[in-house]
Design brief:
- This protein is of the alpha/beta class.
- The longest helix has about 30 residues.
- Its cofactor is Zn(2+).
Length: about 675
């Protein structure tokens, strides 16, 4: 199957039966290894013992010598002992008799006359003890050539192969393993015919798609804009939470515009070698200009585009900042109408360098937010195409129960639902499988074998019943969906809510949500007479919310309508606080007063409704999992915004003004650790 990568063979796929043989550096190393092995193991099988001439003479006189080979120009003799006499010399060979000859070797001086000496010794021996004498000259032609030329040949060969690799690197055809390619761009090029993703494949993201469609029009009809004197934007920055489809949207732009697409991660620019990042930036833009019109997509650009001078280190002039400087230069260096558009993605736009975000580099920022209800429905329809669903499956119901889920989360839910149905040996995936998949993703896997004492189980049930009761009776708290005391992940019990998808949070909504947070802790105090450690997560979130009301949202009359929130992150490394010590003490007192007021209000709600609260806890102990229908049978219809809590319950708050904050767009889990 051809995935569009035709780089391995010119003009398309390589024909069958034809394979190009490439003699690379790996083959050279293999041959070199075999040559070294041959040199070591081709020295002959014998292991002769070195002895003196007097010992050789004694062996000759004893009649033990069968043959002597004397090399005249080396003044070296090689002695072979008769087979029936080898046992005498076994100790000299470590106790074993050698099987190969020669057995001994000796050296003599240059004045040694081999013919006369060996001839005289042979004449003095009986006929049966005489030895065979061979006198020769060792030319050593090949061994001398190998000894003197092997090392220079190896050096020359390595030099040639290295420069061949460097030349290939300059031409763009070098492999990634070549050391001279360390400065080349590692970006992947997808030719225009290989990108099959279009805007039809991107569900949701309606606002973002409208903005990027303009970029497609720039690439398709550039003269339409340049004819009027306009300049094509050089870059667009996709900003949004993880998993919202920023990379998919960039691919859809390339597929819709039908142009080449370079993709690279911001971390690919940074290496331990000095100058490598800047070199890769230059090479990337060089290739992009050759392929223009095209799109260059840099994913996670915050890895290289972090604001300069804010590194946690001793020097600000590091390799990453040099890479960023080169990137800034290249983005503002090529011609405005060259047809190269830069797309980048990040979920941390607040830490990017201001020079990178200025007009002329990234001319516009496209926000890719978490999908709303209609967008989640569209995303679910994309991911359930390959699933065998039950006939009564309701996509809209599931989309309503997954607020705050990103596209990646929804894909994970669909896959997990299919696995859950397969585990249960079902033939189709139904609604319950999807709900169980959502529970598993949010809360974790059920821990059915967790050992919990009856007293702990009762405490957990009253804790979760406190959360459920307060959230049901308060008009602005998040609507409750399900409560369980089945341990999941790190929590011993959990309450699932379906928060409203809103962008503005008022002071009444924040107070009601904080009351539901502390409901479990207060319930334990009422029933057990003392709290437990199970409310750790609740208290942490409650405290953060209270400090945010005072220091960020200006919801305190004593502190005033001021905000110490730093949206730019410029105070990230400052050790001093942006307010005085007196103000800090005032903030602490105000936070404690708010939390005390919320505690008292929650305590009154639970004591006034203790009968229903205890009935709910006992039902939870019996069923372990209850839903909103069970709460409605006990407490009646849920309070709404019209049926507000009496004003006397809100007077101690002493908080005025509306809060503009990020909406709580996630399914919240009350984790009791």
């Amino acid at each position: 199957m051809n995935n569009g990568n035709n780089n391995s063979f010119p003009g398309g796929n390589q024909p069958r039966g034809k394979r190009n043989f490439s003699f690379g550096m790996s083959w050279f190393y293999i041959l070199l290894l075999f040559g070294i092995i041959w040199m070591f193991f081709n020295q002959g099988g014998a292991n002769p013992q070195k002895i003196e001439w007097d010992d050789v003479k004694a062996q000759i006189e004893a009649g033990d010598v069968k043959e002597i080979v004397f090399v005249r120009n080396d003044f070296e003799g090689k002695v072979t002992i008769r087979p029936d006499r080898l046992e005498k010399y076994a100790d000299m060979f470590g106790g074993s008799v050698p099987k190969k000859s020669p057995h001994f070797v000796f050296l003599v001086s240059g004045s040694f006359n081999a013919e006369e000496t060996f001839g005289a010794l042979n004449e003095s021996l009986p006929e049966e003890n005489r030895f065979k004498l061979i006198i020769e000259n060792d030319n050593k032609v090949w061994s001398s050539i190998l000894e003197w030329l092997l090392f220079p040949i190896l050096l020359i060969a390595m030099w040639v192969f290295m420069f061949r690799g460097m030349n290939r690197g300059a031409g763009g055809g070098a492999g990634p393993g070549n050391i001279f390619n360390v400065g080349r761009s590692t970006g992947k090029l997808a030719e225009k015919d290989s990108i099959k993703i279009t805007f039809k494949d991107v569900a949701g993201l309606y606002g973002a798609k409208e903005e990027v469609m303009e970029i497609v029009d720039f690439l398709k009809n550039p003269k339409k804009y340049t004819a009027l004197g306009g300049k094509i934007p050089k870059g667009a920055l996709l900003v949004g939470p993880p998993g919202t489809g920023k990379t998919l949207l960039a691919k859809a732009v390339a597929g819709e515009a039908n142009v080449p697409f370079f993709s690279i991660s911001g971390s690919d620019f940074v290496e331990m070698f000095v100058g490598v990042g800047a070199s890769r930036v230059r090479d990337l833009f060089r290739q992009a200009k050759e392929k223009a019109p095209c799109i260059v997509f840099i994913d996670e650009i915050d890895a290289v585009g972090r604001a300069r001078g804010k590194n946690v280190g001793f020097s600000s002039n590091d390799e990453r900042e040099n890479t960023l400087n080169q990137l800034l230069t290249e983005m503002d260096g090529f011609d405005s109408n060259s047809g190269v558009i830069i797309l980048a993605a990040t979920n941390r736009a607040d830490i990017l360098d201001k020079a990178l975000l200025r007009a002329g580099r990234f001319d516009r920022q496209i926000h890719v937010d978490l999908p709303d209800l209609n967008e989640r429905i569209a995303i679910f329809k994309v991911h359930i195409k390959g699933l065998k669903l039950a006939p009564d499956f309701d996509v809209e119901f599931l989309a309503k129960h997954t607020p705050g889920f990103s596209g990646a989360d929804i894909a994970n839910v669909c896959n997990e639902a299919a696995l859950t149905a397969a585990r249960r040996n079902k033939n189709e995936v139904d609604k319950q499988d999807f709900l169980d998949a959502v529970d598993r993703i949010i809360g974790g896997l059920e821990r059915k074998n967790t050992i919990i004492t009856p007293q702990e189980k009762k405490s957990i049930a009253f804790h979760e019943a406190g959360h459920a009761t307060v959230s049901w009776l308060l008009p602005y708290a998040n609507p409750l969906f399900k409560v369980t005391i089945v341990p999941r992940g790190q929590s011993l019990g959990a309450a699932w809510y379906l928060p409203e998808e809103r962008k503005l949070v008022t002071r009444d909504q924040m107070i009601d949500e904080m009351c539901s947070l502390i409901g479990g802790r207060v319930a334990e105090e009422i029933v057990n007479g003392q709290p437990s450690t199970g409310a750790l997560n609740d208290l942490e979130r409650l405290t953060k919310q209270a400090y945010a009301m005072v220091t960020y949202y200006g919801m305190s009359e004593k502190v005033g309508t001021v905000s110490f929130y730093d949206s730019t992150g410029s105070r990230g490394y400052e050790l001093s606080k942006p307010y005085s010590e007196n103000t800090a003490e005032l903030i602490d007192r105000e936070v404690k007063d708010i939390i005390g007021m919320i505690h008292d209000r929650t305590y009154k709600i639970l004591t006034d409704n203790r009968e229903g609260f205890e009935k709910l806890a006992n039902l939870l102990l019996e069923k372990e999992v209850i839903f909103s229908d069970d709460l409605e049978r006990i407490f009646g219809p849920r309070a709404n915004s019209e049926a507000a809590v009496p004003e006397e319950d809100k007077k101690p708050a002493e908080i005025e003004g509306d809060a503009v904050s990020e909406a709580v767009t996630e399914s919240e889990t009350k984790a009791d650790e």
